Amino acid sequence: MTTFLTNKFSIWPLNGCQVFQKGGIILKLAIKLYRIHTCKLSTFIHWAKIPQFTQTCDLSVYTYKRKHSCESYFYRNDFVMKNNETNIEYYNAIAKEYNNMLNKDSDRAIRKKVADKFCSIVKNAVVLDFGGGTGLDLRWLSDNNHTVFFCEPSSGMRQRAISDYSDLPRDKIIFVDDSATDFLQWNLRFPFPAQVDAVLSNFAVLNCIPNIGLLFQSLALVIKPGENMIALVLTRKLKSKLNGNFRKMLTSFIHQGPLTLNISYKKYTQIVYVYSIQEIIKAAAKHFDFCSSEVLPASGFTLIHLKRK
User: Fold this and answer.
1) Which residue in 82, 93, 108, 275 has its CB near the most CB atoms, within 10 A?
2) For 44-186, where are the E strands, in sequence order?
3) What kind of architecture, by CATH, is found in domain 78-308?
C-alpha cells in the first residue's frame, strides 16, 4: 500500500497512479490507472468522500482511452505533457551545438558499442529510431541496410538530421513529422504504415521521460511481437545515489520514483530521470521481456536489450 500526503482538492499523477487529494487527509491508495474503469470511479469517489467529483465531471488533468481489443489503457496528463514540452524546448535550443557536445572519443566509442550490439541482433530491418536527435545513428543504420523511421520530437534536432543526412536515400530514411512524434497519441493515431521490426533508443532518450511505463505501452503498439529493442540508458546504483543530492535521493525512495536531475543551458532546463535497471524491467514487464544489460565502464550508461512479448 502506498501512502500519499494530500493537499487541496486536485488529482496528481505519480508513477502510474492517481493521487486523489483532499485537504489535510492522508489517503492510502495503490490504484493503478489502467485498473480504474468508469464504473469503478464513482465508487472510489464515494468511498473517498470527495463530493466535488462525480462520475460525469471533467477530470481534465488526464484522460484514458481503450483501443478496441487492446488491453492497455493510455492517458494524457498535464505533468507528462509539460515535461515533454520543457525537454523539447531544451533540445531545440541546443540543436546547433549538440553534435559538438557528443564529439568526444569516448562518446564515439559508446555509439559504436551500441551499433555493434544492435547489428549483432537486428538484420535488414524496419527500425524505429526513437528520439533520434540529430541523426548520429542514421549513417550506420543505413550502411547496415535498415529502413528507418526517424522519430524526434524536437524540430530543431530533426531539421539538423534532415540537413546533415540529405545524401541518404529518402525511401530508406523516413522522418516522422511533429504530429506523429507524441507517443501518448499512438493509441489514437498509428504513426507508421506498419509495425516495425526493432526499436533503437540511444543516448539516454528513456531518461527524458517521467513515466516510462506509458512509453513501453506505446512502443508495444508499434513493434512486432518477438522483436527487439536496444536502449542506452543512464542508470543508478545505491552508491551513486548516496553520493548525490540527499534530498533528491530521499524523495526518490519515498515516492518510489526515478531520481531527477536538472540540466540547464542558457534559460532552458532539461529534466533527466535516472532509473535503476529494476525500475526499467518493472515498467516494461507487461509488454517486453528483459534479455540482458551491460554496464559500459566509466560512462554511467547501461546498454539494455528487451524483446517484445
Assistant:
1) 275
2) 62-66, 73-77, 126-130, 147-151, 173-175
3) 3-Layer(aba) Sandwich (3.40)
